[in-house]
Design goal:
The protein has one domain: Glutaredoxin, CATH 3.40.30. It is built from 4 helices and 6 strands; from the N terminus they run E-H-E-H-H-H-E-E-E-E. The longest helix is centred in the first third of the chain and has 12 residues.
């Protein structure tokens, strides 16, 4: 069972998602995307796999989003992919890829939907919030 997380260790949500994956008994492939950013083609494929528009995966907070004027609708997806390539911090995280799909996992418990495992025992996030798994997963493609 392959699980991949595009991870930023400085991000609490990303750390919680990684911990939840491990709580499920899975050891994911961890890609620190700021050190090893996905190529434009890889990013295009990731975005397509989420079923979300590219703009839904852009991060505004703590990035050059506003300075670059990326809210302006004139930017095409191809141009936005170029911006992410130049500043990978613009990619929101964590993105997780499993056999059940690809998802931007914000909030961190969103990862549960795509973990290919049964019901998990409760999990406590870094901030003390307790997550109780409802067992609902995406159907296998």
């Amino acid at each position: 069972m392959t699980v991949t997380i595009y991870h930023n260790p400085a991000c609490g949500t990303s750390r919680n998602v990684l911990a939840l994956i491990r709580h499920a008994g899975l050891e994911p492939t961890v890609i620190e995307y700021l050190k090893t950013p996905p190529t434009k083609d890889e990013l295009r494929a990731l975005v397509a796999a989420t079923g979300q528009p590219l703009r839904a995966l852009l991060r505004e907070k703590g990035t050059p989003y506003a300075e670059l004027g990326l809210a302006d609708p004139r930017w095409t997806d191809e141009q936005l992919l170029d911006f992410i390539g130049q500043s990978p911090i613009l990619m929101n995280r964590p993105l997780v890829v499993t056999s059940l799909g690809t998802k931007l996992c914000r909030p961190s418990e969103a990862v549960l939907e795509i973990l290919p495992v049964g019901l998990l025992p409760p999990f406590t996030k870094e901030d003390g919030e307790r997550i109780v798994d409802n067992g609902v997963r995406r159907p296998r493609p």
